[in-house]
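seq:
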Amino acid sequence: MTTPNRPKPNRVLLKLSGEAFCEPNGFGISTKELNSIANEVKAAAQTGTQIAVVVGGGNIIRGAELAQSGDIQQATADYMGMLGTVMNAVALKEKLDSIGIDSRVMSALDIRAVAEPFIRGRAIRHLEKGRVVILAAGTGNPFFTTDTCASLRATELDCDILLKATKVDGVYNADPHKDPTATRYESLTFQEALDKRLGVMDMTALTMCQERNIPLLVFDFKIPGNIRRVIQGEPIGTLLTTKESSTQTA
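struct:
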């Protein structure tokens, strides 16, 4: 049975991990990967859907891992991680601008030399004008992940759906890289994902999506054109909602 297309959203929140900006098992910002991300976002933006992007910073620094050494307090390490997200956001903005896509970086930390402060009304106005809004520095608070930031910003900006870009084509009942019998869910409820501890997002982020009834779509962004296809409603990845019962692929 063919899965029907989903309705085309008016406004989306795209969550990109920091690892999306570097080569596999790499570090820093890869020109090749940056170009790929920017062109994918451009193709998606040209569909007419308003796009906000939350970027991670794991390609620059991982605050939690740094704090584990015991030499740096986690709060400080988390702030360092936030600065890493700002670097990725500025790089993405510059590339988008160079290929004709108007964009703005808005930061939860006050860093006006390179980014506007995040103000909800201003962000919405940018989106309404057709600009891609790149959201940096997470929530601006330590001890919160950029996944939680994505759920928060999707709520604040009245997004129709949260798109989590990953390296796999959805949510599986086991790690597909380790278990050849792992099967992918086409749809899933938030509660099922929480109960089964599937590791879709951290619990705070997932619970916020559940409570605010924001659909979450997990998909493979490494396949060219997938961000645009997702926005156009093609049945890609795994959709998590509050109501649908889970279904798995064969």
